Amino acid sequence: MATSTGTTGTPPPSGSPALPLLGENDGVVAVALADEAVAVGPGDLRWHLAPLITGGTHTVEIDVSHIDRLSSGSIATLLWVKRTCAARQIRVVLISPTTRTLDQLRRTGLANVLEIGSQAS
Which CATH superfamily groups domain 33-117? Predict the structure, then answer.
């Protein structure tokens, strides 16, 4: 069964790893993305992020400082977030990528697609 967020199935159980919400302030939503959360799969992350990108949100900041390497699942999730937010005119900023992650973003061309910031606002 497809939902409005573009995912299928049922929501993940409440005890599953979620995107930790770092804060919501004046239309800016800040979340953290970690290797452990990505390991559960992009669908689970989408379920947790979708409710955060509604309403008056104009920017989503994703703290990727705890990601050592971008897996194909995390890249798929980031591109889904970018596409979904762009459709709602919401800006997406990756915050504090490690040197290794930043290098990977540059090598793959994703640094030209995803906005990269240094620190959360």
Answer: STAS domain (3.30.750.24)
